[in-house]
Amino acid sequence: MVDDDADADGRKAAASDSVAADSAAGERPGRRSHGIVGERDDRPRMPFWLEFPLLAAIAIVLALVIKTFLVQAFFIPSGSMENTLQISDRVLVNKVIYRFRAPHRGEIVVFNAEEWEPEIPLAPPGNALVRGLRGFASALGLGPPGEKDYIKRVIGLPGDRVQCCDAAGRVMVNSRPLDEPYIFQNTLLQSRAFDPVTVPAGRLWVMGDHRGGSQDSRAHRGDRWTGTIPQDHVIGRAFVVVWPAGRVGGLPVPAALQPSSAVVLLPFVSPAMMERRPPGRRRPGRRSRS
């Protein structure tokens, strides 16, 4: 009995010595430095003044990748799309959708038109730093886009015959007048007319919603492409206003200009794919099941 008490006292003393040794080595009592799940990581951490710039650089790289391939923010520099878009609005542009289908009539698109004169000329940057800051702000949608980037609404598609006007002063496409509820401050009726223009293959006829303040396809009818823009110069479709907060909302196509419901519901499917096969016609190489 005495021997058992002595052994217990010896074990307690050894445990106390082990705890004291762990504390002297900077470890918590009851934990070892290796091999135990949940152990404290004593490896040195990166200082905040180094970690923050690294995280900021990663965020910028991700933003640029998204901007280049998926979605880009654009600053609205002029009133050519009033009142649908106001000066200083920010919109998001889907850069993927037209990889799968062509633009539809009524959609608002951002495009590059090198042959057009800028609507809002920008003062040339004074130095390389200003040029770089301007380009960075434009890329993130925080400043005006390039002088040759425009935002307009698609009115004429390849093969369409566009002209103005009917008896009510409306634009006509393929001899049918368009119902355009978004028009703001149209031009005077006597100065609104223009002769028919047939849109060439691979090109689009575009117009601003602020018809009295937009330098669009109408203003460039004298060029070799009669004011149309190349379809492959379209950067993407503007689909939502994200700033200012009081104007956040989508940019849908007006009901009167929408294509067939099948194409609206399945925007990546061509109309030809939606056609039904004649009854009784079977695919080659297939046998009907009895």
Note the topology.
Layout: H1 2-24, H2 48-69, E1 71-75, E2 90-94, E3 108-112, H3 128-139, E4 149-156, E5 161-164, E6 171-173, E7 176-177, H4 189-192, E8 194-198, E9 203-207, E10 229-230, E11 234-243, E12 249-250, H5 261-265, H6 271-274
Antiparallel strand pairs: 1-2, 2-11, 3-4, 3-11, 4-9, 5-6, 5-8, 6-7, 9-10, 11-12
Descriptive overview:
The protein has 290 residues and is an alpha+beta fold. The protein is 24% helix and 19% strand. Strands 1, 2, 3, 4, 9, 10, 11 and 12 form an 8-stranded antiparallel beta sheet that branches. Strand 6 (171-173) and strand 7 (176-177) form a beta hairpin.
The percent of residues in helical segments reads 10-25%
Structural class: alpha+beta
Which whole number gives the mean pLDDT?
76
Radius of gyration: 33 Å
Distance between the termini: 93 Å
Low-confidence stretches: 21-35, 261-290
Shape: elongated
Query: Which oligomeric state applies?
Result: single chain
Topology order in helix (H) and strand (E) letters: HHEEEHEEEEHEEEEEHH
Largest sheet: 8 strands, antiparallel
Question: What portion of the residues fall into strands of 2 or more residues?
Answer: 15-25%
Q: Count of DSSP helices?
A: 6
- Strands, total number: 12
